[in-house]
Amino acid sequence: MRTAYQPSFSRRAVLAGAASIIGSGAAAKLFGRATVDQASAAASHNDHALMSGSMHNGFAEGRTTVDPKVNGFDPSVIVRDFDWGTTRRLAGGRTLRQWEIVAYDKEIEIVPGVKFKAWTYNGRVPGPTLRCHEGDELRIHFVNAGSHPHTIHFHGIHRDVVDGVPGIGGGLIGVGEEFTYSFTAEPFGLHLYHCHASPLAEHISKGLYGAFIIDPKDGRPPADELLLMQNAFDPNFNDDNEVYAVNTVAFHYLYQPIRVKREQLVRIYLLNIVELDPINSFHIHGNFFQRFPTGTSLEPTEYTDTVVQGQGQRDVLELRFPYTGQYMFHAHKTEFASLGWMGMFEVVE
């Protein structure tokens, strides 16, 4: 007998709105399809038309999203939530930044009615967005309160003894154990952190990851800054993602658009952490952006409206919206968009 967190559905069934999610009834409402037979026929007749249509029709009846109280975190907050840690001055004027990160198991809701047994950093997926300046001294105290051994591996430049790789540095932190990762923040740019325990794909896909931003010493131009972590979930554990999102909750920003101001500089920190799929992408409607790959240069390399990322790849994107209104953003992989990876910017004066 399946439990509530193991819905019986496939990509095609979700796209057709015909899957059966135990105890929730959510799948029957996904895209307004009536029966499995009708959905299967429609899918086999014209997958592309089905996905394109569902993509713009909404996800669940009533155009609802997951109540943030259910998860204990809100994608509308995560998008602008940057954690600078606690600080103190060291001899010579350098800054020491410190954080505590606790790994523990937590059931979260990724679609209304669809639960997922996640492994989390500080009870949220993605974990806290750690932020600092190049040259800062960093100490991240890690506590493993989960049910499996875990680590934290930080992208960037540091010694092997704090690399968070089993058998080398920062080891494999057992259940109930602690470890402190200490290193200097370099180079500036947009980086990741994630668990590096084996099997690696499982530890990442279950939610143990977050963004790690190192600002240039002199900073970047003032902007409305946004964090978009491209992620995906395999609720029935068949090694095939069924739900895609940015910042975890499918279609959240479709129902709760990200509000920005016309002509204000908007800076997007875009990361791809999706397991099980080789590439992901970001596309914006009605606009173009400057692309800064990995954020390690202050000079853009491209002016475009679409960027493709492999897993672990990230980009800093900058743009201004010249007009007010509603502007869609989504994966330019239609299936991913139809399964949750899409949202809206609301541009206001």
- Predict the CATH topology of the largest domain: Immunoglobulin-like
Q: How big is the Rg?
A: 20 Å
Mean pLDDT: 86
CATH architecture assignment of the largest domain: Sandwich
**Would you list the SSEs in sequence order as H and E?**
HHHHHEEEEEEEEEHEEEHEEEEEEEEHE
**Biggest pleated-sheet summary:** 6 strands, mixed
Provide the structure class: mainly beta
Q: How many alpha or pi helices? A: 8
Q: Could you explain how this protein is built, in words?
A:
The protein has 349 residues and is mostly beta strands. The chain has eight helices and 21 strands. 44% of the residues are buried. The longest helix is centred in the first third of the chain and has 11 residues, at 47-57. 14% of the residues lie in helices and 37% in strands. The strands form four sheets. A six-stranded mixed beta sheet has the order 12-11-14-19-16-17, with no helix packed on it. A five-stranded mixed beta sheet has the order 1-5-10-9-7, with no helix packed on it. The model is unreliable at 1-9 and 16-62 (pLDDT under 50). The chain folds into three domains: 11-57, no CATH class; 69-215, Sandwich (Immunoglobulin-like); 224-348, Sandwich (Immunoglobulin-like).
